[in-house]
Amino acid sequence: xxxxxxxxxxxxxxxxxxxxxxxxxxxxxxxxxxxxxxxxxxxxxxxxxxxxxxxxxxxxxxxxxxxxxxxxxxxxxxxxxxxxxxxxxxxxxxxxxxxxxxxxxxxxxxxxxxxxxxxxxxxxxxxxxxxxxxxxxx
Length: 138
Known about the structure:
Layout: E1 13-17, E2 20-24, E3 31-33, H1 37-41, H2 49-53, E4 80-83, E5 91-94, E6 101-103, H3 107-119, H4 125-134
Antiparallel strand pairs: 1-2, 2-3, 3-6, 4-5, 5-6
């Protein structure tokens, strides 16, 4: 099934990113991650970063030009805005239907930078809790 970029309507191209096949838009550099792919692209993190990002909180202070987008996989489902790890300034689009994430161009690098910054900090209660959740059976 051909997937389309929710921002510029170009066909997404399947490419390998650190051994994980992701769908990339060559025009805007956005990418779509199926469930589980974010954790594989950012393997240096502890805990389940996807679970910690899928919070029920709605991001209310979006920029005016940051409109919700339609999921490239579920084509009839509008994705909702979520904060990466529920406290950062990185805002992602999340599909409740398939569990996929849309990352606008540059957001993967911002996620990696955010996690690199966490490595230098003492573990917080939230980080320890996310590590605990990682090992719970699904």
